[in-house]
Design a protein that fits this description.
Elements lengths: L2 H32 L1 H4 L3 H11 L3 H4 L1 H13 L1 H10 L1 H20 L6 H31 L3 E3 L5 E3 L3 H4 L2 H25 L2 H31 L1 E7 L13 E6 L4 H5 L5 H18 L3 H23 L2 E3 L9 E2 L7 H28 L6 H5 L6
Antiparallel strand pairs: 1-2, 3-4, 5-6
Length: 377
């Protein structure tokens, strides 16, 4: 395998790491938002929940930027095809994301209950919708996306918004939301006490159980659906376009990688173990252990999807042979190598800063703290 192919695989792995970071860090914040009306029954309790993630939520959004930037620079054909086809989805995601900072900043500036209640629901929606979209995106990859290329490599998306909300995608969206709520609930357990922590503890266990069931159903569902199999075309590390390959579909093909490399079964096992560990840790009131178990669960779930899909990144349901893979959608070798260098410097820096911020701002948030601080959310 030549250096170009190695760089392509490295960036496929790095993109997976960025998606995992997004799921863990942003999913935690979104989970608190999505469960805000349940874990917080009074205005003060909701303020406590918001201030638990208050020092971190905006910094965690950097994972969105990293993920989008990585796709743009490392896999520009994926970026151009997906982002140009999913206008409605992107706008939906954009508007819900815009609601979040507005809700955080303006919710508690006016004491009117109707005003605060409206922003509470806005935060619930802006927490739930992005995680559903995140999970549904993975679901649609397994079913294939309706797009094709013309002779001049111009891509055309031929699907509809409602088509993206197929049953399997809805199920994976709910799975994503359940895992996010599990992480958010464990975060509230970390930062709150009393009745709020008790509610969050019960919700974390329920959300974790739902996630386990949906992950199992998803695996069985994927095994029964037609998968994509690369038959022929330019090999790894060779400059190519999607017009030069042959891809066929057949039931159960998405499990071919697991059959060829049995060690990959450890990845979904990691997902199940993480979810079960989060449930048991929440039950034992060990929220910090539960949070890390939830992070392991996200790694296992996203890693399972990536292991099954490889080398496909954006399969085409219109014409499987026009599917985008790691090999035919990446940037040049020079671009990938330069980006590896930048990533090797900046990602550890981001991880260090994130860990430092959580360590410095650790501890419980009490009602007295938010009521006595005019700068609190």
């Amino acid at each position: 395998m030549n250096g170009y192919a190695i760089a392509q695989i490295v960036w496929w792995l790095l993109l997976g790491v960025l998606l995992m970071g997004l799921a863990v860090m942003v999913g935690m914040d979104m989970g608190v938002g999505a469960s805000l009306r349940y874990v917080g029954r009074t205005d003060t309790e909701r303020r406590v929940a918001l201030n638990i993630i208050g020092p971190h939520w905006d910094g965690n959004q950097v994972w969105f930027i990293l993920g989008g930037g990585a796709i743009f620079a490392a896999f520009p054909l994926i970026y151009a095809t997906a982002f140009s086809g999913f206008y409605v989805v992107m706008l939906l995601l954009l508007w819900t994301m815009i609601l979040r900072p507005i809700g955080f900043e303006y919710r508690s500036r006016i004491g009117n209950p109707a005003w605060r209640g409206a922003w509470d629901w806005a935060l619930v929606v802006s927490g739930a919708v992005p995680m559903i979209v995140f999970g549904a995106a993975f679901g649609n990859l397994f079913r294939g996306v309706p797009f094709h290329f013309e002779w001049n490599m111009t891509s055309f998306y031929t699907g509809s918004f409602l088509g993206l909300l197929n049953p399997f995608a809805v199920m994976t969206g709910v799975l994503s939301l359940a895992m996010s709520v599990m992480m958010g609930s464990l975060t509230v357990m970390n930062g709150a006490g009393g009745v709020m922590a008790a509610r969050a503890r019960g919700l974390a266990q329920l959300a974790g159980l739902i996630a386990i069931v949906l992950f199992a159903i998803g695996g069985l569902w994927v095994h029964s659906m037609p998968g994509y199999h690369w038959v022929g075309g330019p090999g790894p590390g060779i400059p190519q376009t999607p017009l030069q390959q042959t891809v066929v579909t057949s039931p159960g093909t998405w499990f071919d990688n697991f059959g060829a490399h049995p060690v990959l079964w450890c990845v979904p096992a990691l997902g199940f173990a993480g979810m079960l560990g989060a449930i048991l840790a929440a039950r034992a009131k060990r929220s910090h252990l539960g949070w890390w178990s939830g992070a392991v669960a996200w790694i296992g779930v996203i890693g399972s999807a990536g292991s099954a899909l490889f080398p496909f990144m954006l399969p085409s349901s219109s014409d499987p042979s026009l599917s985008l893979t790691v090999w035919n959608s990446s940037s040049s070798e020079s671009t990938l190598l330069w980006m590896i260098g930048f990533t090797a410097f900046f990602v550890p820096l981001i991880l260090w800063y994130t860990g430092w911020a959580f360590w410095v701002m650790r501890g419980k948030i009490t009602p007295e703290m938010v009521e006595g601080d005019e700068h609190a959310y």
